[in-house]
Write a structure and sequence with these properties.
The protein has one helix and 17 strands. By secondary structure, the chain is mainly beta. The strands form three sheets. The protein has a nine-stranded mixed sheet, with no helix packed on it. The protein is globular.
C-alpha cells in the first residue's frame, strides 16, 4: 500500500514537473527572440531636407544616431535611390569611415560607438552645377537582425545659383525661408518650428522658435554666412543663408 501511494505521488510530481517545463520552454521561446531583437539604436530624426542652390556645393548635413546599449556596436548601412541626377556625386561619413563616391546599392559596416552623445551620419553632395529634387536613402540595421531596418532620408531641393559670394538678396528668394539684411523671413508652415543657426565651421550661434514670419537675428550671429537648421517633428530642413550688413 505504501509503495502504491509513493508511486502515485511520484507520477503526480512527474506530470507536474513536465507541465512546468513545457510552460517554461513556451515562455522562453517567446521572450528569447525579443531579447535578441532588442533595439540597439535609434535616430534623433529620420529625414533631413536640404534647400540649397548650385552655389552651395558640396551640400552636406547629417542625421544623428543614439547608441541604446552603451557598448560599441556593429551596424550596417545600405544606400539606395531612384532618379538621382547623374552628375551629383554622393559622399557619406559614418564617423567610422568616409566614402567619397557612394553608388546606389553600396553597403558597409560601421561601429556605433559607446558614447553619451550622438553619432552623426553625414551626407555630402557635389552638385556640379546641376539643379534637381531627389532623395538619397540609407537603410540602417544590425547585421544580426537584417529585417529590423530603420530608413533615413536626405532630400535635396537644389535650385540654380548665380556664382559664389553672391548675396541672397540677389538670388531668387526661397518661397519658404530667406533673409534680407539681418531679418529672417519664413512662410506660415514653418511657424512654431524650432531653429538653430550655425557658422560654416559648425559653431552654434543661436537657437529659438519661429513664432512670427519675421525674425530679427540675435547679435550672437556675427558672421556673413550661416547655416539655418529648422526642426519640425521628424523633419529637419537645412539652408545656407547670406546676411547683408
Amino acid at each position: 500500500m505504501c509503495f502504491c501511494i509513493c508511486k502515485s505521488l511520484n507520477n503526480s510530481l512527474t506530470l507536474s514537473m513536465r507541465k512546468w517545463i513545457k510552460q517554461l520552454i513556451a515562455v522562453t521561446s517567446i521572450a528569447f527572440p525579443t531579447l535578441l531583437n532588442a533595439q540597439v539604436f535609434h535616430c534623433v530624426d529620420t529625414v533631413a531636407t536640404l534647400n540649397v542652390t548650385t552655389d552651395n556645393s558640396p551640400a552636406h548635413w547629417y542625421i544623428e544616431l543614439v547608441n541604446d546599449v552603451q557598448t560599441d556596436t556593429t551596424l550596417r548601412w545600405k544606400a539606395h535611390w531612384t532618379n538621382l541626377p547623374a552628375s551629383w556625386q554622393i559622399s557619406f561619413d559614418d564617423q567610422d569611415n568616409y566614402y567619397s563616391n557612394v553608388q546606389a546599392g553600396d553597403s558597409a559596416d560601421f561601429t556605433l560607438f559607446q558614447s553619451t552623445s550622438t553619432q552623426k551620419l553625414i551626407i555630402g553632395n557635389i552638385l556640379n552645377q546641376t539643379t534637381g529634387r531627389s532623395s538619397v536613402y540609407f537603410d540602417i540595421y544590425d547585421p544580426n537582425t537584417p529585417n529590423d531596418v530603420t530608413t533615413i532620408e536626405y532630400y535635396f531641393d537644389v535650385s540654380q545659383g548665380q556664382g559664389s559670394g553672391t548675396s541672397v538678396g540677389e538670388l531668387a528668394q526661397d518661397q519658404f525661408l530667406y533673409t534680407k539684411g539681418r531679418t529672417l523671413y519664413c512662410s506660415e508652415n514653418y511657424l512654431q518650428a524650432n531653429y538653430a543657426l550655425y557658422s560654416i565651421a559648425g559653431a552654434l550661434l543661436a537657437t529659438g522658435q519661429l513664432t512670427q514670419t519675421q525674425l530679427e537675428l540675435p547679435v550672437t550671429v556675427n558672421t556673413s554666412v550661416v547655416l539655418l537648421q529648422v526642426q519640425q517633428g521628424q523633419k529637419t530642413t537645412v539652408k545656407k543663408l547670406w546676411l547683408n550688413y
